[in-house]
Write a structure and sequence with these properties.
The chain is globular and about 40 Å long. Helix 1 packs antiparallel against helix 2. A five-stranded antiparallel beta sheet has the order 1-2-3-4-5, with helices on one face. By secondary structure, the protein is α+β, with helices and mostly antiparallel strands. It has two helices and nine strands; from the N terminus they run βββββαββββα.
Length: about 150
């Protein structure tokens, strides 16, 4: 869901349809270079188990919103796993269409510290079709405002 944080900055919260085991928050969108078609944002995963976060860099027009829109368009399903990865490999999203019209999104956050690399994954579950379309639209809007 696209909302604002307490400081009035845009954020997107990605929850889980079936269980509230993990929430992902996309925040702090910024365009680091005027002459480069890239965007940066922060992604945070939090739950009862704790919290992890990492900065993410994406190409303008090739972000997670576009990937999620392609999944929403195929609401009837697909075979296998579809994957999207950020420009800097700090975030990847894998998608599987399962029974009952559910899309399982596995979000993998990766720390880029060479001395202490880390990976964290959590899965959110969404209804195929409109739920995925709303999620994609929220993320697209979150990144579009920064791109302009």
């Amino acid at each position: 869901m696209l909302t604002d944080d307490p400081d009035g900055e845009p954020i997107v919260e990605v929850g889980n349809l079936d269980t509230p085991s993990a929430t992902l928050i996309l925040s702090r969108p910024v365009r680091p270079f005027d002459d480069e078609p890239v965007l940066d944002f922060l992604i945070t995963a939090r739950g009862e188990w704790g919290r992890v976060e990492t900065p993410v860099r994406v190409w303008i027009g090739d972000g997670p919103g576009e990937f999620l829109f392609s999944l929403a368009e195929d609401f009837r399903g697909w075979k296998g796993t579809r994957t999207w990865e950020a420009l800097d490999h700090s975030l990847s999203v894998s998608a599987e269409h399962r029974s009952l019209g559910r899309v399982h999104l596995t979000w993998t956050l990766s720390g880029t510290d060479i001395e202490c690399p880390w990976d964290f994954s959590c899965t959110t579950v969404h209804a195929a079709g409109e739920d995925m379309r709303h999620l994609a639209a929220d993320i697209r809007e979150f990144l579009r405002v920064t791109a302009e």
